[in-house]
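Researcher: Re-running this chain for the archive, since the previous output was lost when a drive failed. Same request as before.
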Amino acid sequence: MFLGEDLLPYLVLAFGGALCVGNFLAVVKPPERQLDDDNLQRAPVGRSLLYAGIGLVAAIWALASLISG
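Model: Regenerated C-alpha cells:
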C-alpha cells in the first residue's frame, strides 16, 4: 500500500489533533486585533468547544487504532 498500512489512522490523528487544538485555542486566545468588519472578534464558544471535542474523539480513536495494531 502507498505510504504504509497505517496511513488512514495517521491522517485521522493529524486532522483530529489539529481540529481539537485549533478550536480550543480560538476560544482561549482570540486575536488581539480585528482585521476587518467581516471577521468576528471572538469565536463562537459552543460551536468551537463542540468541534474541539469531535477532534479529540477522532484523535483518541486514531491513537487507539494505531496502538492496538
